[in-house]
Predict the structure.
Amino acid sequence: MNIILASASKRRSSILDSCGIRHRVVVSGIKEKMKGAKPGYLAAVNARLKAENVSRKLKNGFIIGADTVVLLGKKITGKPRNAVHARKMLKSMAGKTISVYTGLCVMDAATGRSAAGWERSKVRVKKIKPQDMSRYFKLLRPYDKAGGFSIEGAGSFIFDNIEGSYFNVLGLPMAKLYGLFKKLDADLLDIVRE
């Protein structure tokens, strides 16, 4: 099975690697939509746009499009624009619960069939003392991630009480992805390397 990840996310690629799924990365380069819809639907639309864009370049293979957005209160956040924006995002999340939505679209380039959906998880962000904010900020490497944070590494110190899929918070809910492949009569277990 030829698997293509239509995402520049190194984290998503490493998740597939950790599951033993051989794949290659073909970045879609589309401009993600950030307004005009509910967060789950918005993430799913962006995931479909990525998969469709890459699918047009290929004759066969299963293309995985994925997109993650974070909801804080009623505001959708994407990736931070710059350092000032990233710090502001982290400060606004401190002491609150955020919702993380990842949209997925799997497209069979040979047939044009696709399956799509989205997953939601909630994450509690601990309160952060003002004197610690800069230290966390340096360790969280926020620039290429929705919401401007990483739950891995030092992020595990401040992000806790996850409701839902941990892998969704990382940007690739694997149980959901497995189900989408099954809808296209493809089984990821058939290609997993041990």
Q: What stands out?
A: The mean pLDDT is 88. DSSP finds six helices and seven strands in the chain. Strands lie at 3-5, 24-25, 62-72, 75-77, 97-108, 114-125, 159-163. The longest strand covers residues 97-108.
